[in-house]
């Protein structure tokens, strides 16, 4: 295992980049701690695979350095970095059996045959392919071949890091869940440094110790799943994490009061002197609709439709904005009554986040 350091790292696919807009990967300085499991999460084209390929040595960065345990490997070839990488689509040796494919990385390094047999059996059980160990890889389904790729990536115990580039794309949904569980078990047992690229928030949040959220070539937040949910550092994180994502409303803020379309909202902290584009963000889980009690509390709202998803109900509502209706989502517990008489929208003040120009602002004690 290794600590991976990204030092002043940036990359452009253009020969002579003129400005930030020409970079696929914006400047990044970060330490990936030895033995932790990270997920790189973001929409397609945000720079996830570019960063992974730089770490693996498949791509040399335009700027900056990569260090493994303090040793500069920026110009070191992939083979010299002692890593295992699993790609989005399966890479297998069709003329070899499943057993031979899984054993190949160990045989290539002259490992003891008894150890190879034991390790291959263990990995085959992990990926559910004990019954096909002596079959040729040619003719197997795409998901079976991808399981071989995963197994070959995991068979070595001495690697500096395991890198996964959307490895479960071709795997059926039930097997995805099982393999994610196995990857977490592997990490727990052997403590490999793991970096897992995905655009699927469920994969990221269930796999990783820390999630690295990327947006337009920039890392906008690194944190635990809980931190990403409760305190998104950027409005993109609030939008991208959660189903539905965070509600965002334009606001003018004075101290502990936010003026938003339709009325005022009390905040759990004070925010003096905010400039630029100011918004409040509230998770649908921390919003609720109640009947009008005549007190004037809450924002006037209208229910447009209700979606019952089993565990809870998603209420699609709206409030009047300066240029037309603004959508607001509310998560109501399963069994809770939802009716058209619920015309007042309430937010939990302690769960409201405040943003200026898309970045979260830390409030002062009220």
From TrEMBL:
CC terms in the record's Gene Ontology section: ATP-binding cassette (ABC) transporter complex, substrate-binding subunit-containing
* GO MF term list: ABC-type ferric iron transporter activity; ATP binding; ATP hydrolysis activity
Which InterPro entries does the protein's record reference? AAA+_ATPase, ABC_transporter-like_ATP-bd, ABC_transpr_FbpC, ABC_transpr_MalK/UgpC-like, Mo/tungstate-bd_C_term_dom, OB_MalK-like, P-loop_NTPase
Query: Which ranges carry the ABC transporter domain?
Result: 4-241
Q: Which keywords, in A-to-Z order, does the entry hold?
A: ATP-binding, Cell membrane, Membrane, Nucleotide-binding, Transport
Record-stated family: Belongs to the ABC transporter superfamily.
Task: Identify the PANTHER family for this entry.
Answer: ABC TRANSPORTER ATP-BINDING PROTEIN, MALTODEXTRIN IMPORT ATP-BINDING PROTEIN MSMX
This one is known as Carbohydrate ABC transporter ATP-binding protein, CUT1 family
Biological source species? Albimonas donghaensis
State the taxonomy lineage: Bacteria, Pseudomonadati, Pseudomonadota, Alphaproteobacteria, Rhodobacterales
């Amino acid at each position: 295992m290794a600590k991976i350091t990204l030092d002043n790292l940036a990359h452009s696919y253009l020969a002579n980049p003129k400005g930030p807009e020409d970079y696929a990967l914006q400047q990044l300085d970060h330490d990936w701690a030895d033995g932790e499991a990270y997920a790189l999460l973001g929409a397609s084209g945000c720079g996830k695979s570019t960063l992974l390929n730089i770490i693996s040595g498949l791509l040399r960065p335009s700027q900056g350095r990569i260090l493994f345990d303090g040793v500069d490997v920026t110009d070191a070839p992939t083979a010299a970095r002692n890593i295992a990488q699993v790609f989005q689509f399966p890479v297998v040796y069709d003329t070899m059996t499943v057993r031979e494919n899984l054993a190949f990385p160990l045989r290539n390094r002259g490992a003891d045959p008894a150890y190879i047999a034991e390790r291959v059996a263990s990995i085959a059980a992990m990926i559910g392919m004990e019954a096909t160990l002596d079959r040729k890889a040619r003719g197997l389904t795409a998901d079976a071949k991808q399981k071989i790729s995963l197994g070959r990536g995991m068979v070595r115990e001495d690697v500096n890091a395991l890198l996964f580039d959307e490895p479960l794309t071709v795997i059926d949904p039930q097997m995805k869940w099982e393999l994610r569980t196995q990857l977490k078990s592997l990490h727990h047992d052997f403590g490999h440094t793991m970096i897992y690229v995905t655009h699927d928030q469920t994969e990221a949040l269930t796999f990783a110790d820390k999630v690295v959220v990327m947006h337009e070539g920039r890392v906008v937040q690194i944190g635990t799943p809980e931190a990403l949910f409760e305190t998104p550092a950027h409005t993109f994180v609030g939008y991208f994490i959660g189903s539905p994502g965070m509600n965002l409303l334009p606001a003018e803020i004075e101290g502990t009061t936010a003026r938003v379309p339709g009325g005022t909202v009390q905040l759990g902290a004070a925010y003096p002197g905010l400039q630029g584009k100011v918004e409040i963000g509230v998770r649908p889980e921390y919003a609720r609709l109640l009947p009008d009690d005549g007190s004037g509390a809450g924002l006037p709202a209208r229910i447009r439709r209700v979606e019952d998803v089993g565990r809870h109900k998603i209420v699609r509502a709206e409030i009047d904005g300066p240029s037309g209706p603004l959508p607001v989502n509310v998560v109501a517990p399963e069994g809770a009554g939802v009716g058209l008489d619920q015309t007042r929208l309430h937010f939990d003040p302690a769960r409201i986040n405040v943003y200026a120009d898309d970045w979260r602002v830390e409030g002062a004690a009220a």
